């Protein structure tokens, strides 16, 4: 390829997103049809946190993990039988080690719901090899950015990087009624999109100090960190496309962001509206 492959931050929502597509599902499905076909997908999710090292799935056929409880039976019947990519996984471990990260292969680990649920929409035929990379439990925003930088060379290998998290994630306020999103959710989503479009990396790395209602939007960081990983993999110059996904359960912003390479100039941004 003449240019780096685009990469994606996706809000994966609650597990029910797998069977309740809402506004975000069709958006991701359309994006999956628009993007060039990658040779593989490398995905990260906060539902696989490891201690002391970064693990990388190396199974030839990673299992579909139903790592949740109390949901309808239909959810547990879903499978995402994508093949693995052991050779690519070994290369990722080498890349990470060269960048100073402790890393190892994990041949037993499957794909958690933070990985396979959005892939149901992005790559529904499950015919593109998938490798999942864990997130270190000790990660902070600056380390997350460096992890993204370490993964950035994958974009030159026709690999789609998907950093799966949630643009807002306050489960203490989780509501059963979908309804309209809380005002703070919309304000946080708007600030994040504007700050990405402005290319203000420092504000994003210190989002708890700068974003409106940041502590309420993210009582803990782990679902925001995938966005910072994506930012690190995007490089210094990027174009950003906002895929508005609405709000689930009043508190989960389902917005996603597509990063693509740009020539050095002020950051450009477009928004896909409902």
From TrEMBL:
Cofactors demanded by this protein: Zn(2+)
GO molecular function, one term: dioxygenase activity
Entry annotated with the keyword Kinase: no
Keywords tagged on the record: Dioxygenase, Metal-binding, Oxidoreductase, Zinc
Domain of life of the source: Bacteria
The keyword Zinc is assigned to this record: yes
UniProt similarity note: Belongs to the DODA-type extradiol aromatic ring-opening dioxygenase family.
Protein name as annotated: Dioxygenase
Organism of derivation: Pseudomonas emilianonis
């Amino acid at each position: 390829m003449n240019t780096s492959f685009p990469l994606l931050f996706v809000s994966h929502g609650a597990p029910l997103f797998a069977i309740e597509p809402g506004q975000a599902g069709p958006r991701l499905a359309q994006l999956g049809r628009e993007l060039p076909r990658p040779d593989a997908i490398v995905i990260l999710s906060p539902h696989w946190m490891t201690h002391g090292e970064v693990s990388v799935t190396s199974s030839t056929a990673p299992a579909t993990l139903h790592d949740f409880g109390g949901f309808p039976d239909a959810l547990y019947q879903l499978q995402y039988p994508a093949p693995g990519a052991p050779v690519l996984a070994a290369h990722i471990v080498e890349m990470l080690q060269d960048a100073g990260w402790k890393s190892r292969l994990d041949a037993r680990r499957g794909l958690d719901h933070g990985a396979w649920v959005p892939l149901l929409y992005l790559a529904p035929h499950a015919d593109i090899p998938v490798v999942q990379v864990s997130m270190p439990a000790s990660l902070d925003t600056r380390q997350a950015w460096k992890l993204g930088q370490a993964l950035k060379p994958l974009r030159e290998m026709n690999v789609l990087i998907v950093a799966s998290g949630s643009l807002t994630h306050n489960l203490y306020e989780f509501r059963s009624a979908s309804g309209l999103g809380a005002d703070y959710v919309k304000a946080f989503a708007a600030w994040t999109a504007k700050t990405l479009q402005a290319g203000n990396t420092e504000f994003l790395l210190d989002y708890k100090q700068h974003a409106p209602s940041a502590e309420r939007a993210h009582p803990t960081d782990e679902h925001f960190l995938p966005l910072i990983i994506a930012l690190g993999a995007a490089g210094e110059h990027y174009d950003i496309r906002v895929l508005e996904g609405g709000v689930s359960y009043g508190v989960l912003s389902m917005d996603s962001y597509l990063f693509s390479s740009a020539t050095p100039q002020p950051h450009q941004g477009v928004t896909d509206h409902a």
